[in-house]
Amino acid sequence: MSSFTESGLVKKLLELNPSQQSIQTLSLWLIHHRKHHSIIVKTWLKELHKAPTSKKLTFMYLANDVIQNSKKKGPEFGKEFESALLKAFKYIAQSGPEEKTVHNLNRILNIWAERGVYEEARIREYSGLLNQREKSPAPTKVAEEKKRKADTSSNDDASGRSIAKKSKSSSSGEKKVKSETIEVNGKVETHVTLSPHLPDGDPPEPEELIKVIQELENSASSDAVVRERIANLPPEVSELSALAKLEDKEAAMRLALKVNDAIQILNDYNARLASEMDDRKKLTTMLKDFQREQQELLAQAEQRLHEYQAKLSKIKDVQREVRNHMHNLPDLTSLPDVTGGLAPLPSAGDLFNIHHYVSRKMTK
Question: If you average pLDDT over every residue of the chain, what do you get?
Fold first, then answer.
């Protein structure tokens, strides 16, 4: 289990990129360590302030993911981010963002308003800070030229990465690759990932583990209906000797239809089985991480139990000594009468009455 440190968080924020996988992975890690929400938000704001203008939007995408996905676990992040976002939008506005960046941030604010993430008054405050930004001075020709070259270089790098990804994907056909198309910075990108789960070593939340196990209850291997359909496929669809028995074109067409149906059924079922294998591998990793975390917690609990048992033993020793001491003390009720038959001392009430009586006598 990777422990939380502020330096580790800074490192992760520096490595953050605009891809959905990068944002979601870090978001899950932050939500897992939500007990450090105060330090997390302060560090996030500090690094956003230092980040280049082009990366500030990525920081906001991360905040949006954390705020919305942590609501079911607790309100800590939503409350902590609420005040920090005032400074965040101010920093972004002062950095002179592009119109496309402002458009994407306004879209986040609209989503927050629709889903009731924050109150309308607070969202209007965010919007005012963002959209009433100071106009940055017009860039010089030299700056424009540098920006144009940087954009060209960035596009070339992106194209190279895209070609490399396609080549790698085509050469590893045996691996099940999941891809999804998302919009990042206004551009539609296809992100390919072999594992959408947490980084190695991070234990899953119990709710996440239960969800994966429940989903596997309806897995392909437990689908008796499809297995029965496959078992009942006509034997001629898998036997080449059946071709010799074909007498006319109509019989060949009927056999071709049966073969095509069998291929469709088997292709679909094999794809489901492959997906199930990936899910079970993922579950195996999650269970190992969860078991390791439980073993660590068990060791901590055993250590605490040992400490408190030792403390209890010390307290019992004190209790025993107190009892022994009490047995050695004399019993005052069994002592002889030391007054020697003398009259008991007057009470406070008696003394008050005597004083009052003497005072009246003296006044007379």
Answer: 77
Token code pair at residue 320: 């025993």
Q: Give 216's contacts (C-beta < 8 A, 6+ positions apart).
A: 276, 279, 280, 283
Give the span between the Cα atoms of 173 and 168, in whole angstroms. 9
Q: What single-letter amino acid sits at 197?
A: H
**2: DSSP letter:** P
Distance CA 127, CA 113 (A): 11
* CB 61 within 8 Å of CB 20: no
pLDDT of residue 92: 92
Q: Going by C-beta distance under 8 Å and a sequence separation of 6 or more, which residues neighbour residue 232?
A: none
pLDDT at 1 over 60: no
Annotate 5-42 with three-state secondary structure.
CHHHHHHHHHHCCCCHHHHHHHHHHHHHCHHHHHHHHH
DSSP string, 176-237: --EEEEEEETTEEEEEEES--SPPTTPPPPHHHHHHHHHHHTT-GGG-HHHHHHHHTS-GGG
What pLDDT score does 167 carry?
A: 40
C-beta neighbour count of 190 within 10 angstroms: 11
pLDDT confidence of 310, banded at 50, 70, 90? very high
Q: How far apart are CA 254 and CA 111, in angstroms?
A: 54
Residues 201-230: tens digit of each pLDDT? 567 778 888 888 888 888 888 888 888 888
Rg (CA), the chain: 38
